[in-house]
Write a structure and sequence with these properties.
Elements lengths: L8 H8 L10 H12 L2 H4 L1 H9 L3 H25 L6 H8 L2 H36 L24 H16 L1 H26 L15 H12 L19 H30 L11 H8 L3 H35 L18 H17 L2 H29 L14 H14 L4 H25 L1 H4 L7
């Protein structure tokens, strides 16, 4: 039964209040952090791929993915207001479902956030190179993409992707207040760019391009929903900042739900306008679909702003994903499941600098040498697995600890959490078989590490398992 030992929630909260991290974030910071994580590669890159899968019905795909995320967000909000501790679903699972479940979902989150850092930096590289080409500047082909990314072109590594991830890793290690300020500024700019696209693009929509609305039927809509789910990844990263929020019980639910609601509305509107300007079949092979729509509308000056907004937007996604990744590794290290050194806090900057540079270095290499299409679906399945677990965990915590004060309560329990889990499992079923194989291999590796290292080095193990609820 030691596999399912749980952490004492009161003890977790006590540790969180004395961990050396600075509590400097407010509700606006959290909403902007969520928007910063969500609006990026999903809207500026994957909308084209989604349109090829669902046609104009891509709008419905975004609604379906948004509903799945929204249901999970309500569960996240309850946990975040009840257990405001770093580590997101990993920490919540440790308090409710037991150590082995927490380890596996923590290992899953390492995959999700880490690959997201790498994947989004690859998208950033594409837009950055597009911007450079507008000034007549081009990089050597060998340094523009991972090996095998471009058919017929010899590429060695994606240098721009590696460099932007290096800069972001340094920024996150430097300080949370500084990271938040830069994130907030870039989020405001990129949101303004998205609104500019909507205001200009709506006048160039041709309703005839929306027919047929769902050329690939319901299966196309659901397959696209599973794909563009990537566009919503990130709002859960807000919960990883719990120990650096001034009033986490109130502000975390605001940040989670507020950022997701704003982004869902923007996604649906952008998808409708984009497919109304450009016939969906013309997005084949296009990695900048939003700016393409404006170019076809004859609005090249706005397309230039969109490219700039995409670069800033994708930068904030990398920033928030890196932040979330390091806080999860920090929490797992503090619990003894990963080496203790990874939970060291910098004496001056008050950041987990060792964890930041360790994970940053690993995924800088992945960003340089692994193609984007390989990364995207692995991220989706990892996130959907985490969302399924959070939906189950909120039901367990309601039953095992009904006495805990909850500043926010997920409505419609048990129906909404069960719907959330069902939605996520349904979308997982629409991912490729190869994605499932890779995911299961990753989980098997994590299970081996747990039994060889994490289980016997866990803080709960060294305390005789007496820290359970």
């Amino acid at each position: 039964m030691s596999l399912f030992r749980t952490k004492n929630i009161d003890a977790m909260l006590a540790v969180a209040n004395d961990d050396g991290l600075r509590k400097v974030l407010g509700p606006v910071d959290l909403i902007l952090m969520g928007i910063g994580a969500i609006i990026g590669t999903g809207i500026f890159v994957l909308t084209g791929t989604g349109a090829l899968t669902a046609g104009p019905a891509l709008t419905l795909s975004f609604v379906i993915a948004g509903i799945a995320c929204g249901l999970a967000a309500l569960c996240y909000a309850e946990f975040a207001s009840t257990i405001p501790v770093s580590g997101s679903i990993y920490t919540y699972s440790y308090a409710t479902l037991g150590e082995i479940v927490a380890w596996m979902i923590g290992w899953d989150l390492v995959l999700e956030y880490g690959l997201a850092m790498s994947a989004v930096s690859v998208g950033w590289s594409a837009y950055f190179q597009s911007l450079l080409s507008g000034f007549g500047i081009s990089l050597p082909a060998a340094l523009t993409a991972a090996p095998g990314s471009v058919p017929g072109v010899h590429t060695v590594l994606n240098l721009p992707a590696m460099l932007i991830l290096l800069v972001i890793t340094w920024l996150v290690s430097y300080g949370v207040r500084e990271s938040a300020r830069i994130n907030n500024l870039m989020v405001l700019i990129k949101t303004a760019v998205v609104v500019l696209f909507i205001v200009v693009g709506v006048w160039h929509v041709k309703p005839a391009n929306w027919h047929p609305f769902a050329p690939f039927g319901a299966s196309g809509v659901f397959n696209a929903a599973a794909l563009v789910f990537f566009a919503f990844i990130g709002f859960d990263a807000v919960t990883s900042a719990a120990e650096e929020v001034r009033n986490p019980r109130r502000d975390l639910p605001i940040g989670i739900i507020g950022s997701l609601a704003i982004c869902t509305v923007l996604y649906v509107i952008v998808a409708a306008i984009m497919t109304g300007i450009v016939p969906y079949a013309q997005f084949a092979g296009v990695d900048h679909p939003v700016s393409l729509a404006l170019q076809m509308a004859g609005q090249n000056w706005v397309a230039g702003f969109v490219d700039l907004g995409a670069i800033l937007g994708i930068t904030t996604v990398i920033l928030v994903m890196t932040f979330g990744q390091t806080r999860i590794v920090f929490a797992m290290s503090r619990d003894g499941l990963l080496p203790e050194r990874l939970s060291a806090v910098h004496p001056k900057h008050s950041t987990p600098h060792v964890a930041t540079w360790t994970v940053g270095t690993i995924f800088i290499v992945i960003a340089g040498f692994v193609p984007l299409n390989v990364l995207a679906e692995l991220i989706n399945i990892g996130t959907l697995a985490a969302f399924t677990l959070i939906s189950i965990a909120v039901l367990v915590l309601r039953r095992t600890r009904p006495d805990l004060p909850r500043a926010f309560r997920c409505p419609g329990v048990p129906v909404l959490p069960l719907l959330s889990a069902a939605f996520c499992l349904f979308l997982m079923a629409h991912l490729q078989a190869l994605t499932w194989v890779c995911f299961l291999i990753w989980l098997a590796l994590g299970l081996a590490i747990y039994f060889l290292y994490a289980r016997r080095n866990a803080v709960l193990h060294n305390h005789g398992g007496k820290a359970s609820n």
